[in-house]
Amino acid sequence: MKGLSTKSLSLAYDGVPIIRDLNLAIPTGKITALVGANGCGKSTLLRGLVRLLKPIGGSVYLDSTSIFNLSTKEVAQQLGILPQSPVAPEGLTVRDLVAQGRYPYQNWLQQWSAKDEKIVQQALLITDLLELAERALDTLSGGQRQRAWIAMALAQDTDILLLDEPTTFLDLAHQIEVLDLLYDLNQNQGRTIVMVLHDLNQACRYADYVVAVKQGRIFTAGEPKQVMTEEMVKEVFALECRVISDPVLGTPMCVPIGRKGKSNTIPN
After folding, report:
1. S-S: 101 plus which of 86, 156, 219, 244, CB 3.0-4.6 Å?
2. Pair (164, 72) in one structural domain
3. DSSP secondary structure string, 205-239?
4. 263 inside domain
5. Same domain, 16 and 59
6. Domain residues for 29?
7. How many CA atoms, within 13 angstroms, populate the side-chain half-sphere of residue 91?
8. How far is CA 114 from CA 117, 127, 220, 242, in A?
9. pLDDT, tens only, 90-141
10. How far apart are the first and last CA of the chain?
C-alpha cells in the first residue's frame, strides 16, 4: 500500500495563494480528518492531493513518485475521490453510477469484463445497496445517495479514498451511517481514508489522525487527544470552548461556550 504525502505544496485559485508551503504525510491504513474554519483551505488541499488542482510550488507524492509524473488513469487507479455535493445525470441508476468507478480501467483494448462486474457487485454489497441497484439515484434518501457515491469510489478499487465533507446536508442519523461505513472500510479492508469534516467531535470519534488547518497552513496535527485542545479551537476557529471526555468513547469532545455560555459558570 502506497503512502500519500506532500512536500512544500503551495496551491492557489486565480493567482491567490490558498495553501502555502505545506508538508504533510498521511498515515497509511488510517483515517485522517482535515478540520478548520470555512475558507482555511481544507477542500483546496484535498483537491491538490488528487491532482484536481495544479500546484504553484512543491508536489504530492505516492511513496517517492510525484503524482504529476503519472498518467490520469494511473492516478485514478490509486486515488479514489468523492467531491463535495457531487451531481449525477437525471435518471442514472445506482448501478450505472457505481459502474463509472471502473472507467479508469477501460480502454479500446479492454472493455467491460467479469472482473469489473464482480468489483461493482462487491461495492454495492459493502455499501448495502444491492436491493437499490436498479433505482434511480434521484429517488433515494440523502444517506442512500451518499452511500452510492461512496460505492462508486470503492469501485475504483483504490487503497486510498479522499472525501470532501461526506456528511454535508445529511441529518444526524445519516451522518453516522456514512461515517460508520467509512470506519468499517478502514477496519475491514485497511483502506487509507482522508476526509474533510466540519464536526470536530465526529472527527475525534472516527479519525486516527487529525490535521487542523489555519489560513492555508497546518496549525497542528496528530492523534485526536493531542490536537483537540481548547487553545487549538480558539486559535483555529476563534471560538471559546471546553474540551471534555466523550462519555461513550472517551475521545475528546468540544463543548462550545458562545455568548449564552459566558453568562453561566463553566467549570474548567
Report:
1. 156
2. yes
3. HH-SEEEEEETTEEEEEESHHHH--HHHHHHHH--
4. no
5. yes
6. 1-78+158-228
7. 0
8. 5, 20, 46, 54
9. 889 999 999 998 988 877 666 788 889 999 999 999 889 999 999 999 899 8
10. 43
